[in-house]
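Researcher: We plan to redesign the surface later, but first we want a full-length starting point. Tokens attached.
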């Protein structure tokens, strides 16, 4: 009985996907874990300047690969571990302290990006870059200037998580599945963010016309204000209680990664460089955008009420002012 050894040259080449996560702290490690659990990429590479930390995180994840969709995990303090990645997610940055605003973090984190991004772009020039580090809008704007990458190729995770928080709270109030709530937070990922109530809906029912009886009644102005406050401040509550937000942001980041790697053309409120969006430009802000394999394909000009437009413009002015403080 003869044995046949396949000729590698005749084997069909299989395109595999590689995700690089820069920063192996609470957010980076959790994001890598979430990506593995969901089978988002065939290779997950972790990078951190702390060699012992990144190698330990990678080893811990490697020991669980039997229980997730097929994948390999690698980790190193050498930037070469990110080589030829399809998606690079940057989570490295200064840690947010209790009571500290996201803007307070900007200076140290932008300085870090000046060291991180040039060698990253050198080893992974064709990757789509997703910035998760806070303050994400200012960091994304600075990172575009530092890296020289086109705006569709580098963008921030923006208000994907905030919009998830908004939808969760609306679903809770209205007694419906969160998957049937369509609502977005726009603007800054932070204190000046704007809930887009006028364009929101549950199923096919405009949110402002929702009018069930009993405990799941209409979203009055008072209810909407309470929800908006909770969305904007929930991160501070979590940081105060456990030191960092990591689970929901890891899942939100993985959702964006999947939209890119699967070329979904999904609509997600990511933070990108705006150019004459209702007259707003030269700033990175979150608005609903079409996300796929090449990054951002388009931003959607959704209908805005006068107060929503004013809020978005105010958010843009504040972020532009912060960027100028750091020379961008």
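Model: Full-length starting sequence:
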């Amino acid at each position: 009985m003869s044995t046949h050894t396949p000729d590698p040259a005749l084997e069909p080449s299989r395109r595999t996907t590689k995700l690089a996560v820069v920063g192996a702290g609470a957010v980076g490690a959790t994001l890598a874990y979430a990506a593995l659990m969901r089978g988002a990429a065939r290779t997950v590479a972790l990078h951190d300047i702390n060699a012992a930390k990144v190698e330990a995180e990678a080893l811990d994840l490697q020991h669980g690969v039997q229980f997730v969709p097929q994948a390999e995990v690698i980790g190193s303090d050498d930037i070469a571990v990110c080589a030829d990645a399809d998606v690079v997610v940057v989570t490295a940055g200064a840690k947010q302290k209790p009571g500290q605003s996201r803007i307070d973090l900007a200076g140290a984190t932008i300085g870090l990006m000046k060291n991180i991004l040039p060698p990253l772009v050198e080893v992974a020039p064709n990757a789509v870059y997703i910035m998760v580090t806070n303050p994400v809008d200012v960091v994304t704007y600075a990172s575009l200037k530092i890296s020289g990458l086109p705006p569709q190729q580098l963008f921030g995770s923006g208000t994907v998580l905030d919009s998830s928080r908004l939808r969760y709270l609306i679903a809770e109030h209205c007694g419906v599945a969160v998957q049937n709530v369509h609502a977005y937070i726009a603007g800054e990922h932070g204190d000046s963010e704007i809930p887009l109530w006028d364009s929101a809906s549950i199923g096919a029912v405009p949110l402002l016309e929702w009018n069930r009886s009993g405990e799941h009644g209409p979203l009055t102005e008072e209810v909407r204000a309470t929800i908006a406050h909770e969305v904007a401040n929930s991160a501070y509550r979590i940081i105060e209680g456990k030191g960092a937000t990591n689970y929901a942001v890891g899942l939100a980041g993985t959702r964006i990664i999947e939209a890119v790697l699967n070329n979904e053309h999904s609509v997600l409120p990511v933070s990108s460089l705006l150019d004459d969006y209702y007259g707003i430009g030269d700033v990175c802000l979150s608005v609903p955008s079409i996300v796929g394999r090449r990054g951002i394909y388009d931003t959607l000009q959704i209908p805005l009420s006068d107060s929503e437009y004013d809020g978005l413009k105010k958010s843009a002015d504040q972020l532009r002012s912060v960027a100028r403080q750091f020379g961008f």
